[in-house]
Fold this protein.
Amino acid sequence: MKHLLLFAALLLFGCAASRAQNSPAKPMTAAEKQVEALERQRFVAQVSKDYAFLEKAFADDLIYTHSNGKQNNKTEYLQSIRDGKSQYDKIDVETLTVRAYNDGKTAVVNGTILITLPPKDGQPNLAHLKYVVVQVKDKKKGWQVVLWQSQKQTS
């Protein structure tokens, strides 16, 4: 009898999991669409060194944690781009998911990107990263990144 109950429970769980995977994705909210667009624009701005855009996109209290564990605040991170320490030839977005919270005032973004860095010793230099971003909507400044955290993705 115990085995039959366990089998029934596993069967029900399997059906529920299958339904969840096959259910259509919920439509993105306006806030989620805005944040997704801004994420893509920010990557372009990091490559093109559009400091005016980046100044607005990053909150003054930004915590930017690189995939090697090094942390920067907003001033340090922008200076690292100016100094060539954070240099990007291309950033390709592979996956990007946005979830809005707090009545559309906070968003959590996670995804994967492939960064093409300047060649190292004549060899292609790629960084495949998983990342998480938290953006907060300020009444005056709009959406701003308050947190970036990334890690190198392994195959």
Summary: Residues 2-22 form the longest helix (21 residues). The mean pLDDT is 87. The CA atoms of residues 96 and 140 lie 26 Å apart. DSSP finds four helices and six strands in the chain.
